[in-house]
Amino acid sequence: MTKTALRRIEFIVLIVIVVIYGLAAYQRNLIWEDNLSLWSDIVKKSPGKARGYNYLGLAYHEKGRLDEAIKQYKKGLSIRPFYSNIHNNIGISYFDKGLVDKAISHFKHAIEINPSHADAHYNLGVAYGEKGLLDQAYSEMRKSNELRKR
User: Which fold has domain 35-149?
Assistant: First the structure.
């Protein structure tokens, strides 16, 4: 084989590789289109990890699809029942649905798991305020602020 023929083959192989990688990148970008498609793909590929369900729940919540968000959080909690962030996030979804008592239960559970969870203290304070429990609301808000200063 001549040098010219080898260079042509190298060039063709290089073009094929570039095209294959370009198509793979394009396909991956479709998955990264938004959080919902990204985390749906992650959950599909790693169904045994609670973190994916947490973020998929957040993606549904961002789109106002609270029932689907709650469903994903519950799946995550079935894998990791002591995941404080999921308890906090499901509490937010319940609160936004008007189910304040359920929200309070999950915020409290998040705090039991992680007493330094500033967001859970804040959210519990908001929920207490919604129920008219102003002393408890103030106490939780104060605790949240103290934790954020650390």
Answer: 1.25.40
